[in-house]
């Protein structure tokens, strides 16, 4: 049996992941920047801890339901519309649209998930992932911050470049340190009130929101406990650092 623990197949124009079931000790797999449309060939990799499938053509998260030890899942720059795991979606006998799907229950050990630059419109199906520490969902079409109040271990939440107009109560995220809300539709200081109770927050990005046309110092006064605040309207504008 092969004893590889790390395998990098990135930048190879791969269209189908070959059967890797013989790599029984594999812990990290990189298949980024290829031409994958489906996730296949990895269902037996029960020891896998990190999976990078970024920059492919994947539409459905599938075939991960046996990866119980997975801690990092990187899926940025694909065509994914929902955060869910589908089983056998690539089967020749079952259309992708009819594949049985569920949340990420099987990935209970997941600590990092990145679905940046995809086609998401909502945050969902993270109910069983209370161990998440980093969530990257920037550059999608998400219109609301929801279904994350149970993520008490969350350290980093990146929701930049979405369509979010309001910020809900986030008091339950008492471990949150970095919050990216740049390039959204947050319009007034009233929308920021709920963040004042998140006392662990150290870094807050608000630039290129409608409220960014206000004076940055007003935001800084509201969040005196935050070490770094970026809220300027223009990219080359001033950045307030406290």
Automatic annotation (TrEMBL):
<dbReference type="InterPro" id="IPR032675">
    <property type="entry name" value="LRR_dom_sf"/>
</dbReference>
<dbReference type="InterPro" id="IPR001611">
    <property type="entry name" value="Leu-rich_rpt"/>
</dbReference>
<dbReference type="Pfam" id="PF12799">
    <property type="entry name" value="LRR_4"/>
</dbReference>
<dbReference type="Pfam" id="PF14580">
    <property type="entry name" value="LRR_9"/>
</dbReference>
<protein>
    <recommendedName>
        <fullName>Protein phosphatase 1 regulatory subunit 7</fullName>
    </recommendedName>
</protein>
<keyword id="KW-0433">Leucine-rich repeat</keyword>
<dbReference type="InterPro" id="IPR003591">
    <property type="entry name" value="Leu-rich_rpt_typical-subtyp"/>
</dbReference>
<dbReference type="InterPro" id="IPR025875">
    <property type="entry name" value="Leu-rich_rpt_4"/>
</dbReference>
<keyword id="KW-0677">Repeat</keyword>
<dbReference type="GO" id="GO:0005737">
    <property type="term" value="C:cytoplasm"/>
</dbReference>
């Amino acid at each position: 049996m092969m004893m590889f623990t790390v395998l990098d197949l990135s930048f190879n124009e791969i269209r189908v992941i070959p059967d890797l079931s013989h790599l029984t000790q594999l812990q990290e797999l990189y298949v980024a920047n290829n031409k994958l449309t489906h996730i296949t060939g990895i269902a037996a990799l029960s020891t896998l801890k990190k999976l990078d499938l970024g920059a492919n053509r994947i539409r459905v998260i599938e075939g991960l339901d046996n990866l119980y030890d997975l801690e990092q899942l990187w899926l940025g720059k694909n065509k994914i519309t929902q955060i869910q795991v589908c089983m056998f979606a690539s089967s020749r006998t079952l259309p992708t649209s009819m594949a049985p799907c569920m949340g990420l229950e099987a990935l209970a050990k997941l600590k990092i998930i990145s679905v940046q630059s995809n086609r998401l419109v909502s945050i969902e199906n993270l109910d069983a992932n209370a161990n998440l520490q980093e969530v990257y969902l920037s550059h999608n079409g998400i219109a609301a911050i929801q279904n994350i109040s149970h993520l008490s271990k969350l350290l980093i939440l990146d929701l930049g470049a979405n369509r979010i107009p309001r910020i809900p109560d986030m008091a339950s995220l008492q471990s949150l340190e970095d919050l990216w809300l740049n390039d959204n539709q947050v319009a007034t200081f009233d929308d920021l009130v709920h963040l004042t109770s998140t006392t662990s927050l150290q870094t807050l990005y608000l630039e290129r929101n409608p409220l960014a046309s206000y004076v940055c110092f007003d935001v800084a006064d509201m969040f005196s406990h935050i070490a770094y605040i970026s809220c300027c309207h223009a990219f080359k504008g001033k950045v307030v650092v406290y």
